[in-house]
Amino acid sequence: MKTANLSLTQQFLTSDFWYHFKHNKVAIFSAIIFFILVILALFAPLIAPFDPYNLQTLDIMDSELPPIWQEGSDSRFLFGTDDQGRDLWSTILYGMRVSLLIGILAVLLQGLIGITIGLVSGYVGGKTDSLLMRIADVQLSFSTLMVAIIILAIVQSAFGSDAFNKWAMVILILIIGLAEWPQIARTVRSSVLAEKGKEYVDAAKVMGFGSMRIMFKHILPNTLSPIFVISTVQIANAIITEASLSFLGLGMPVTEPSLGSLISIGKQYLFSGAWWITLIPGAFLVILVMVINLLGDFLRDTFNPKLYKG
Amino acid sequence: MLQFLFKRLLQAAIVMLIISLLSFSIKDKLGDPLREMTGMSVSTAEREMLRKKMGLNDPFLVQYGRFVKKALHGDLGTSYFHKLPTMTVILKKLPATLELTFAATLIIIFTSIPLGVMAAIKPNHWFSKLIMAFSIIGISIPVFVTALALIYVFSVKLGWMPSFGRGETVHLFGYWDTNFLSKDGIMHIIMPAIALSSIMVPLFIRLVRAEMLEELSSEYVKFARAKGLSRTKVYFKHALKNTMLPVITVGGVQIGIMVAYTILTESVFQWPGMGFMFLEAVNRSDIPLIVAYIMFVGFLFVLVNTLVDLLYGIINPTVNLLGKGQ
User: Fold this and answer.
1) What is the C-alpha to C-alpha distance for residues B204 and A251, in angstroms, rounded to an integer?
2) Dist CA A232 CA B225 (whole Å)
3) Which value, to the nearest 10 degrees, does the dihedral of the CA atoms of residues B255, B256, B258, B264 take?
4) Most confident by average pLDDT, A65-74, B98-107, B174-183
5) Considering the domain boundaries, does residue B217 fall inside one?
6) Containing domain of residue B132, as a range?
7) Which candidate in A41, A226, A267, A275 could, as Cys together with A96 as Cys, close a disulfide (CB 3.0–4.6 Å)?
C-alpha cells in the first residue's frame, strides 16, 4: 500500500469511513440537513431578512402574523411574526446560532476537562483513578438538568436578572460544560486502559519520554474515535439542556433568544391559536437535535467502540 | 456485603454533607432573615441586637452546625412567601409530583418493555424498524416541546383534554390528594404523564432491546431452543427475566433523574407539584424554600441511588461489589 504517498483528500476518499458514509442514506441525509442548518446559523446576519435585535425596525402592527401558507399572512414574513412583530424566520436563525454556539462550546469544555481527567485517571491508575471515578459516579448520579437548574436559580437570585442576562451565555456554557465531563472522562479512561498495555507505550517509556508526552502525544490520538462519537451525542444533549433551561427562564434572556427562549415566549400565545411562535422554533430545535443524534448513531456504528457496554 | 453496605452508606453521607454545606452557604450568603422579619422602622442598633440574639454573628461553622442539627429534625426554615415551615410546603406539594412520576413510570413500563422485546425478537420486521426510528426521534424531542405539542393538538385544536392543573382530586387519609380516583383527575394526569414519559420511553426501548439481544445470543437460550421449548416460552420465561435485571437498575437511577424533568412538565401544565413550587420560589427569591428544595431533592437522589446500588448487590450476586481484582 502506498497510503503514505496519497494526499489527505485521497486518503479520506479511500477510507472505510467514507465508504460506510456513501452507503448510508440516513447518514447522508442527516449530514446534508446538518450542514444546511449550520450554514444558516453561521451566516444568520446575511441570510436573515430582518435584524431581530434591532428594536427600531419592529412594528407592533405586524404582531402575531401567521406563516405565509396561512390566511391573513404577510409575504415579508416567511414563518410569521411573534407577539412584538418580530420576523420569526430571522429570530429562529439567530436563535439557532446561539443554541449551536452554546452546545459546541459547552462540549469543547467538557472535552477539555473530560479528556484530561480520563487520561490521568486511566494512565496513573491506583488511588487517583478510584478517587476521580468515584467523583464522576457521584456527579453522574445527579441529573445535569437538575444541577443546572439549581445553580442557575441561585446565580440568578444572587446577582439579579440584569447581570445574569448579560452573562447568561457564558454561565450556561460553564455549567453544561462542567456538569457533563464524567461522560467523556469515562470513555477516555476505558480507551486509555486498553491502550496502556500496548507495545508502543512501553517503547515510549523505554525511550525515556515523560508521562505528559506519552499521555497526550501517544495515547490520546489513539482514543480519538470514541471521543468523537460521544462528543456528537453530547452536543445534541447540550443543546436540549440549554433549550430546557432557557424555556424555564433560567437561560438565554428574551432579548437575545435561543431556540428554547423563543419557544417559551410563544407558550402563552398557544391558546389564542398563534401556534407558530412556539411550534416552528420547536420543530427547528427537534430537527437540529435529531440530525446530530442520527449522525452520532452512524458514527457509533462505524467506529463501533462498544460505548455503552464498557 | 457488610463492607459494601458500609462503604455505600459512607459515600451517601459524604454526598449529603456536601449538599448541606452548599445549601447552607447559599442560605448564609443570600438569605437575610432579619430583612424579612423586621420592617424599615427598626433601628440599626436594634437590628444588631437581634442579630446577636439569633446567633447570626457566630462563626460560619457554628451556624452550620446549628443548621444541620435543625435539618436532622426536619426543620429547614420558614418560607418567606408561604409563611409556613418549608418542609410543610414541600410535603404538601409532594403527592402531586409523586403521582405524576408514578403515572409516567406506568406508561414507561407498559410501552417500553413490549416494544423493546418486539424490536429484539424480530429485528427485521417493519414494525421493529418503526419502533427504532421512533426511539431516535423520541430522544431528540425535548419534554417541553412534546408537552406543548400535546396541548396544542388535544386541548386547543380538538378540545379533548384539559391543559393545566390537577383537576378534581380525591382526598385520602386526611393528607394525600389523589388523581387516580376520579375521571376528571385521570383526564388531567394523562397528558403530563405522557409528556414526562416521552423522554424516557425511547431510552428504555433501546435499553430493553440491547439487553434482550444480548440474552438471545447467549448459550442458555440456544440450548433451550435446541431442547425444543417453544419460542414464546424461551423469550418470555427465560430471556426476559434476565433482561430485567439491568433494566431495573438503570431504571431506578432514571426515575431519580425524572425529578428534573418534572420541573419542566409541571411548568408547562401548571401542575401544582414540587417542581412548579420551586420555579415559583425562584421567581419570588424565596431563599429558604429554594434551599429546602435542594436539600430535599438531594436527599431523594442520594436515597434512590444508594437503594438501587444495594438492591443490585442483593439481586445479582455476581456483581463485584468492592471493585476488587479488576
Assistant:
1) 29
2) 40
3) 160
4) B98-107
5) yes
6) 95-272
7) A41
Q: Is residue A66 part of a domain?
A: no
Domain count across chain A: 1
Does A167 reside within a domain?
yes
User: Which chain A positions have a beta carbon within 8 Å of B264's beta carbon?
Assistant: 244, 247-248
Could you read off the pLDDT of A200-253 as tens digits, one per residue?
888 888 888 888 888 888 888 888 888 888 888 899 989 999 998 888 888 888
* Chain A residue with the nearest C-alpha to that of B156: A271
Is residue A166 domain-resident? yes
User: Which residues 229-258 on chain A approach chain B with CB closer than 8 angstroms?
Assistant: 236, 240, 243-244, 247-250
Taking contacts as CB-CB distances below 8 angstroms, the residues of chain A near B309 are none
User: For an interface test with B, which of A99, A150, A175 has the most B Cβ atoms less than 10 Å from its Cβ?
Assistant: A150
Which of the residues B145, B214, B217, B301 would you substitute to probe the A interface, choosing the one with the greatest number of A C-beta atoms within 10 Å? B145
Which of B139, B147, B161 lies closest to B196, judged by CA?
A: B147
d(CA B304, CA B15): 13
Residue whose C-alpha cell is 459524604: B14
Contact B305 A141 (CB under 8 A): yes
Question: Could you say which of A146, A157, A285 has the minimum Cβ distance to residue B30?
Answer: A157
B253 contacts on A by Cβ (under 8 Å): 141
Q: Looking at the domain assignment, is residue A26 inside a domain?
A: no
The CATH number covering residue A82 comes to 1.10.3720.10
For residue B263, what is the domain's CATH number? 1.10.3720.10
* B132, B144, B208, B213: best to mutate for the A interface, most A CBs within 10 A: B144
Are the Cβ atoms of B136 and A250 closer than 8 angstroms? no
- Supply the DSSP symbol for A162: H
Neighbours of B264 (CB within 10 A): 26
Determine the distance in angstroms separating the CA of A38 from the nearest CA of chain B, rounded to an integer: 17
B191 within some domain: yes
Asked if A131 reaches chain B (Cβ–Cβ under 8 Å), the answer is: no
Please write the tens of the pLDDT for every residue from A44-53. Answer: 787 777 777 7
User: Using the beta-carbon criterion (under 8 Å), do B301 and A150 form an inter-chain contact?
Assistant: no
Question: pLDDT averaged over chain A?
Answer: 81
Using CA atoms, how far apart are residues A50 and A34, in angstroms rounded to an integer?
A: 23
pLDDT per position as a tens digit, A53-73: 766 666 666 666 677 676 666
Q: Domain tally for chain B?
A: 1
Note down the domain range covering A112.
Answer: 75-303
- Which tens digits make up the pLDDT trace of B40-87? 566 777 777 777 766 666 777 777 787 777 777 777 777 777 778 888
Asked whether residue B19 is assigned to any structural domain, the reply reads no
